[in-house]
Structures are given as C-alpha cells and as structure tokens.
C-alpha cells in the first residue's frame, strides 16, 4: 500500500440486513445513505489513525473495488474513514480504581 491508502474487506453480514420484525432486506434495496463496516487488511506507511485488523466505518459510495487473489477488497483513503471501532475487551475487571 502506498501513502495514505487502506485496503479493507467488507463484512459478510453487510450484504443483507434484517428489520426489527425479522424481514430480510436485500443489499439491492434502495435506502437512504447508509455507511458500511469493514476490516482493515493492509495500510500504507502514512496512515496514522488506523492499523491492520481494525474495524472501520466508511461510505460505500466513495470506494474503489479491487480483486486480489480471487478476493474482493475496497481501496480507501484514510480521510474516507468515518470511525474506527473499539476492540472488545476481554478484561473482566470492573474498571473501578481503588
């Protein structure tokens, strides 16, 4: 990866969604602007906020798709990322300081 580019893999769950009542909404259904989650596979040397393995939120309309080794990925600039998900903590502490 060069400069501030990020290579991400889309979640498998992002293609179809379920409504609150359990109705399956296909990926082809037109809805308002909806952001998508993806996992970072590679990052360029000038990327500061995101690392490999992070889960990022981005606008799927502003993307460039690429196929590498028969897998589909999306190429983004770091500035196109809206959020980075905080990893789940496996620490069982209460977070209180005594």
UniProtKB/TrEMBL annotation:
- On whether Chaperone is a keyword of this UniProt record, the answer is yes
User: What species does this protein belong to?
Assistant: Arthrobacter mobilis
What domain of life? Bacteria
* Name of the protein described by the UniProt record: Co-chaperone GroES
Q: Which UniProt keywords apply?
A: Chaperone
Give the family this protein belongs to, as stated in its UniProt record: Belongs to the GroES chaperonin family.
What Pfam families does the record tag this protein with?
Cpn10
Q: Which SUPFAM superfamilies match?
A: GroES-like
**Stored CDD domains:** cpn10 (cd00320)
Which GO MF terms does the UniProt record name? ATP binding; metal ion binding; protein folding chaperone; protein-folding chaperone binding; unfolded protein binding
Q: Would I find Transit peptide among this entry's keywords?
A: no
List the taxonomic lineage: Bacteria, Bacillati, Actinomycetota, Actinomycetes, Micrococcales
Query: Which InterPro entries does the record match to this protein?
Result: Chaperonin_GroES, Chaperonin_GroES_sf, GroES-like_sf
């Amino acid at each position: 990866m060069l400069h501030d580019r990020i290579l991400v893999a889309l979640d498998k769950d992002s293609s179809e969604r379920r409504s609150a009542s359990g109705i399956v909404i296909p990926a082809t259904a037109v809805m308002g602007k909806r952001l998508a989650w993806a996992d970072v596979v590679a990052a360029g040397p000038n990327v500061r906020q995101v690392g490999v393995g992070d889960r990022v939120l981005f606008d799927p309309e502003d993307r460039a798709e690429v196929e590498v080794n028969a897998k589909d990925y999306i190429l983004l600039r770091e500035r196109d990322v809206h959020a980075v998900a905080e990893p789940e903590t496996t620490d069982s502490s209460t977070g209180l300081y005594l």
